[in-house]
Structures are given as structure tokens and as C-alpha cells.
Design goal:
This protein has about 700 residues and is α/β, with parallel strands linked by helices. The protein has 32 helices and 23 strands. Strands 11, 12, 13, 14, 15, 16, 17 and 18 form an eight-stranded mixed beta sheet that branches. It is globular and about 80 Å long. The structure holds a DNA duplex (15 and 10 nucleotides).
DNA sequence: AAAACATACATTTTT
DNA sequence: TGTATGTTTT
């Protein structure tokens, strides 16, 4: 495809600052990759190019695009966070840290904060860990260190928060750990306080490109500034209308002030849209115009008018879910590619009803929620072992694994070792090594500690080189393997998950030049939900509106357009936050190429409470006729009432799974005889409801229930 | 020490 | 609603 004149200006721009204000669907990604290729073919060394993307996925795609256009690879393409990890490893000494640092995720952070809360002795009810962490994250995003905040701290609450901030940082440091914000903070200060490091990097990266600049926070802004110092070859791209991470500290002002920061900047506006139909763009445009704090920007359609945007109301969320899934099914049946259909929602919990509808209708789908995998107990256990091996100071991880699986090192023992360690100014692990010197620990327990220490030492000796074989060893020697196979419940899946993790590590080993445990751990810590989206699977995708950023689909459904959900209730009080919600909606709308349906439910059950809802104000701002459930009923093809009922029964009666019909007599190993009251087919998650002769009625998972049919 | 049970509790988005 | 924590039981 030919480049437009604006696109060409952006691609061919060589030296000096460049701001690309790129609307949705304007071919921005293509422009960036073409620009990288153009730079290289004009004689710039690939190694002197540093491109920063918003997600790992985007970085991966950009790398592939550059390579596939026949250009020698070698340009550094990664996210801010990955870049920071690299720099911190390389300049660990100057940054005042050790290169084998652990990266603490939200759960780890929360545990550290709970420790801090205990130690600082605050009235715990007034300080929830998550809220305190949120404040601290805000300070860090603004590059405010403890001392700076302390200076201006007034009032009891602020002073407490500062003490918590201080203590929290001490805990992280003691564990040789950094949280997500620290990665940025450390690099920003590295560049600021070590001019020779900064100059070295300015020398190395002659061309800096930053995508999604509207979502950079102050720390990222300072890092970008430092990296561009000296040469000023900084190209940023973004769209203020798509800024959706204010809550995470992103400062839309960074992109708005770019021309002030870099007075000789060239500015290119990409306003033509090559993605969506005119009908969709008109709706997006109307909506975004309701934002007052906004720089006017046009959306210029280049594709035909297309089908009308649908806004459809449903009676409740169940009806909404089933109707949307039916529409997905109809699209697929009419020959549309299932992988070109997506459903977006405001909050992750809204995927549940949709999944149920997909399963019952036996349509395959994918939920884009990758980090969930890393939150599973067995995965966290495994990774905690690896962290202990890679970073001996990581006591948080050590505490997790020391008695997992259970090996007879209980709370009392841990308390004794901990207090002895403190008295002797040693780490917990060093103390555990000298269990014999600690008074009051039984001989048998001493032996258990010694065995554990020996195992860690042995595993640690094999820490170099590829990761997957090491993980196999850990799995085996730690006893996790046998605990997974003897454990009840979801044993099969827990085991599968660990195997999946090891497979992933094997892929890492073969795809990396110098695989190392430290590098592997630091990489997986930065995985995001979006990274889990598998476009090649050709399955209909379910994801949050945030995860949808940067993607596009032929057909898009946005569900739950109700006051309190979209816009979310937490943003209702504040005009700025409301505008951000509107931008979020705008992002969702502009993902669609051909078809868009926005829906709402008049009733919704939120945390167990069934209540009436109000349609989102955004629906009115979009200027589309709103169709109510009653309107739909007047349609000639409408299936009355339980419109989705037929499909459920169809699934119910199909073969391949044991059928439990109402009234059938069954026997349960524990509860005895009973009669089937209901059966819900959910694939392997099918449930049977049985009224037992004991009088109790229970809903059981078929795969665990161990029911036998009684013949009568 | 682990499982079973009970009860409180808080609910956005994510690198 | 479902999770996360605390309490009791085995």
C-alpha cells in the first residue's frame, strides 16, 4: 500500500525530535516500523536504535515486522520496563543494586506492605495495604523518594504513609527486590546521577522511538528525556484521545507538552483512518467530542459508510451474554472468521457469564487474561523456588517455599529461627544453616532444616545455563512433583500448569542467546494480560477494554454500557476520570473495522445483588438509536422469552458425556442415595444437583462427584 | 499440621 | 459473588 503524504513525512524524518499525533487506525504501527527500516537503510546502525512499546506483545510484533521487511535485526525493541531491567542489570553497581534482583508483583508487594503495617504499628483498619501501595506507587511514578515526601508531609495520616513508604522500601531492599515502579525510578536516577552512564547510553542509542507516548508517566518521561539528551533524536507517537492509564500515573501532559519540551520538533498528524467504516468513526467522533479537555483532532474515514452501529438493551446480564454469543455464532455461521470477532467489557469479572454462554453453545473462545496463570498457587510455588535460587536474599520467596510442600518446618520453628537471626544480625537462611546453634529446636526439626538447606545448596549449584532442566530438578527434588500428584482437587490441572510453565521455559531457553535463570525470572515478571492474546488461534476473543488497546477486529461487541460500569462508579465523582472512561469507550469503539454492537442490561447482579441499572450516558452521546428489549421482541425473527433455551438443550442432549436426567437415582460415596434435581452441561465442568435422602441438596462438580447410577 | 468450616469483607483498569 | 482470612476440628 502507498504511503500518504503525512505518513511519508513521518517515515522519512531523520534527525531531531518528531511528534506523530496518530489517530486510531491511522497506520501508526506501519509508520514506525517503516521508519526504523528507513533509518537502517539510510546507513544508521540497527544497534543504535531503541524503540519503546507499551507491551511485550507490541515489541514482539514490531521485531517481527522489521525482520520480515528484510532488514537486518539488532535494533533494541522493548517496553520501558524491559529496557529498565536490562539497564539495571548492566549498570547494577552504579544503580546501587545487585543484578540478580527479584521483581515483586502485586501479591508480593501486598505481603511486604502487610509486614510494614505490622512493624510501623498503624491502626491497620485505616490503612489498607492496597490503598497505601497505591499512594506509594503514585509517588514513585512522580519520582518522589521517601525524603522528598517526608519534607512536605503534614498531618498524622501523611506522616504515617511516609513511614510506611520508608519501611516498605527497606523491606524490598533487604530482599534485594524491586517492584514495577522501582524499575523506572532506579533507571531515572541512574541517568540523572551518573552522567557518564547517560553519555554512554546517548552514544549507544542514537535514535529513540516511543510509542503510546500519551500513556507515559513522569518517570518514563524523565527516562526518555535522559536517553534523548545529546542527540535529540526522539520520535514519539501517540493519541491523547487514547490515554487510558491516568490511574497508573500516566500524564497526558507529556504528549501535549512535547512541542514545548522540544521546540524544534516536527509535528505530523495522521488523521486518516484506514480501519473502520464511516459509520463507526462517526459514532466514535461524536462520543469523544463530549470530552471538554481535549485537543481537536479529526477522524477522517477512508472506507465506505458500512453497517449501522447497534446499541441494544437486554433485560439482564444473562440475556445479554447469550444474545451476544448467539450473534457471534451467527457471524461465524455466515462465514466470518471467529478470530476477527471480539467482546470487550469494563471489568474482568464480566467475562464469566459470557464464558458460560460460549461453553454451553460449544463455541470456542479465548479469554485474554495471561497473568492469571502466574497467580496460581503451584506456579507461584515453583517461581518462588526459582527466586530463592537466583536471589539468596529473597526471604519473601524463601518463606513461601520453606514448608511447601509440608516438610515439618512449622510456625514455631520459623519464629525461633527468625528471632535468632535478628539477634545475631543474620539473614533467615544463614540462621537456618546453623539450626544446631539455635536453642530450643528439636533434633528432628534441625535435621529437617538441614535437609532443606542442603537441597537449596544443591539446586543452586546448577543455576547456570538453561532454565527448563533446572525447573525439572526443582520440581522433583523439592517434592512439589509428588505433592501435586497426591494432592486432591484439581490435581490434573495443577500438574498441567507446571508442565506448561516448564514448556514455556524450554521455549525461552531455545529462543534466547544466553538463557539464564535471573533473566528468565525478570522477563516473566513483566508479562501482561495482552501478551496472552493469541491471534493465530482464530478464536473469538474476550478481554477488558484496556487489553483491547492496539488491537483491531472486524466485529466488536462492547457489553455492560451502564452507569457505574462504563463509566465505572469509581470515576463518577471526578470529571477528569469520567473523561478517561470516555476515552476508554472510544478506544473500544475504534477497534472495530466493520461491525459494532454496544449493549447494556437493564438488570445486573453485582456481587450477589440483583438491581436495576441505568444505561450509560455514553450511549446518548454516541447519537445512536437505542433499542430496548421490547424493540427486539417486535423483530420478525425474534425467539420469544428464553431465546437461548433451545441451544442449551441441544448441548444437553448431545452425546459424549454421561447424562443425568431429572429424577434419576444416584449414589454418592459420602452422601449416599439421592435423586437428580438438575444437570448443567459445562463440558468437563458440568454440574449435577442432587437431593440426597439425608435431606440435603447439593450441587456437585461431575468430575469430582464420583456418582454411580442406581438401577431401579 | 492439614482439612473442613465459618465468617467477614471488598469489590477497576495493569507494567 | 467469591475470596481471603480466621477458627475449629480431626
Amino acid at each position: 500500500m502507498e504511503l500518504t503524504s503525512s505518513q511519508r513525512v513521518a517515515v522519512e524524518h531523520k534527525d531531531g525530535p518528531l511528534l506523530v499525533l496518530a489517530g486510531p487506525g491511522s497506520g501508526k504501527t506501519r509508520v514506525i516500523t517503516s521508519r526504523i527500516c528507513q533509518l537502517i537503510s539510510s546507513g544508521v546502525s540497527p544497534y543504535s536504535i531503541c524503540a519503546i512499546t507499551f507491551t511485550n506483545k507490541a515489541a514482539q510484533e514490531m521485531r517481527e515486522r522489521v525482520i520480515s521487511s528484510g532488514i537486518r535485526s539488532g535494533a533494541h525493541i522493548s517496553t520501558f520496563h524491559s529496557l529498565c531491567v536490562r539497564l539495571l542489570r548492566q549498570y547494577a553497581q552504579q544503580a546501587g543494586i545487585q543484578a540478580n534482583f527479584s521483581i515483586y508483583d502485586e501479591a508480593d508487594q501486598s505481603r511486604c506492605m502487610k509486614m510494614a503495617l505490622k512493624e510501623v504499628e498503624v491502626p491497620a483498619s485505616d490503612f489498607q495495604p492496597a490503598a497505601v501501595l497505591d499512594r506509594i506507587s503514585g509517588w514513585k511514578s512522580d519520582l518522589e523518594l521517601v525524603e522528598a515526601v517526608r519534607q512536605r508531609a503534614d498531618g498524622f495520616r501523611m506522616k504515617m504513609l511516609v513511614r510506611l513508604y520508608d519501611r516498605y522500601q527497606q523491606i524490598l531492599q533487604a530482599n534485594n527486590a524491586l517492584d514495577f515502579d522501582d524499575l523506572l525510578v532506579k533507571v531515572a536516577y541512574l541517568l540523572k546521577e551518573h552522567p557518564q552512564v547517560r553519555e554512554e547510553l546517548n552514544e549507544r542509542f542514537r535514535y529513540l522511538l516511543i510509542d503510546e507516548y500519551q500513556d507515559t508517566n513522569h518517570a518514563q518521561y524523565q527516562i526518555a528525556k535522559g536517553l534523548a539528551l545529546g542527540h535529540g533524536n526522539i520520535c514519539v507517537t501517540g493519541d491523547p484521545d487514547q490515554s487510558i492509564y491516568r490511574w497508573r500515573g500516566a500524564d497526558i501532559g507529556n504528549i501535549l507538552a512535547f512541542e514545548k519540551d522540544y521546540p524544534n520538533a516536527t509535528v505530523v498528524r495522521l488523521e486518516e483512518n484506514f480501519r473502520s467504516t464511516a459509520a463507526i468513526l462517526a459514532v466514535a467522533d461524536k462520543l469523544i467530542h463530549a470530552n471538554k479537555k481535549r485537543k481537536e483532532k479529526r477522524l477522517v474515514p477512508t472506507i465506505g459508510e458500512g453497517a449501522e452501529v447497534q446499541v441494544q438493551g437486554y433485560d439482564d446480564e444473562e440475556e445479554e451474554a447469550y444474545a451476544v454469543v448467539l450473534k457471534v455464532k451467527a457471524l461465524i455461521d455466515s462465514g466470518e472468521d471467529a478470530g476477527e470477532i471480539a467482546i470487550f467489557y469494563r471489568v474482568n469479572s464480566m467475562s464469566r457469564k459470557l464464558e458460560e454462554a460460549f461453553i454451553r453453545n460449544r463455541i470456542s473462545y479465548q479469554v485474554v487474561r495471561g497473568v492469571e496463570f502466574y497467580g496460581r498457587k503451584e506456579i507461584r510455588d515453583m517461581i518462588a523456588y526459582l527466586k530463592v535460587l537466583a536471589n539468596p536474599q529473597d526471604e519473601l520467596s524463601l518463606m513461601r517455599v520453606i514448608n511447601t510442600p509440608a516438610r515439618g518446618i512449622g510456625e514455631t520453628t520459623l519464629a525461633k529461627v527468625t528471632s535468632w537471626a535478628r539477634d545475631n544480625r543474620l539473614g533467615f537462611y544463614e540462621a537456618a544453616m546453623r539450626a544446631a546453634d539455635i536453642g530450643g529446636i528439636a533434633k528432628a526439626t534441625q535435621a529437617k532444616l538441614a535437609t532443606f538447606v542442603r537441597m537449596i545448596e544443591d539446586l543452586r549449584s546448577g543455576i547456570e545455563g538453561p532454565v527448563a532442566p533446572l525447573m525439572e530438578k526443582v520440581l522433583h527434588q523439592s517434592g512439589l512433583e509428588s505433592s501435586l500428584s497426591t494432592g486432591r482437587g484439581d490435581e490434573g490441572t495443577a500438574r498441567d500448569n507446571v508442565i506448561e510453565l516448564i514448556d514455556g521455559a524450554a521455549a525461552y531457553d531455545s529462543g534466547t542467546d544466553n538463557p539464564s535463570l535471573v533473566d528468565y525470572l525478570q522477563q516473566i515478571a513483566l508479562f501482561s494480560d495482552t501478551d496472552a492474546y493469541d491471534a493465530a488461534a482464530r478464536k473469538t476473543a474476550l478481554m477488558t477494554l484496556h487489553a483491547a488497546k492496539g488491537l483491531e477486529f472486524d466485529h466488536v461487541f462492547i457489553i455492560g454500557a451502564e452507569e457505574g460500569i462504563l463509566p465505572h462508579e469509581r470515576s463518577a465523582s471526578n470529571e477528569d476520570e469520567l473523561e478517561e472512561e470516555r476515552r476508554l469507550m472510544f478506544v473500544g469503539i475504534t477497534r472495530a473495522r466493520k461491525g459494532l454492537e454496544v449493549s447494556f442490561a437493564r438488570h445486573r447482579t453485582t456481587r450477589g445483588l440483583f438491581s436495576r441499572t441505568i444505561p450509560s450516558q455514553f450511549l446518548y452521546e454516541m447519537g445512536v438509536e437505542i433499542r430496548t428489549p421490547e424493540d427486539a421482541e417486535r423483530e420478525p425473527h425474534h425467539q420469544k422469552g428464553e431465546g437461548h433455551g433451545e441451544l442449551i438443550y441441544e448441548a444437553f442432549e448431545e452425546d459424549g458425556h454421561p447424562e443425568y436426567l431429572k429424577g434419576e437415582l444416584v449414589r454418592h460415596p459420602k452422601f449416599g442415595l439421592g435423586r437428580v434435581v438438575g444437570f448443567i452441561w459445562l463440558g468437563e465442568n458440568s454440574t449435577v444437583t442432587v437431593k440426597f435422602n439425608t435431606g440435603s441438596q447439593k450441587t456437585l462438580m461431575l468430575k469430582y462427584a464420583n456418582l454411580t447410577k442406581e438401577q431401579f
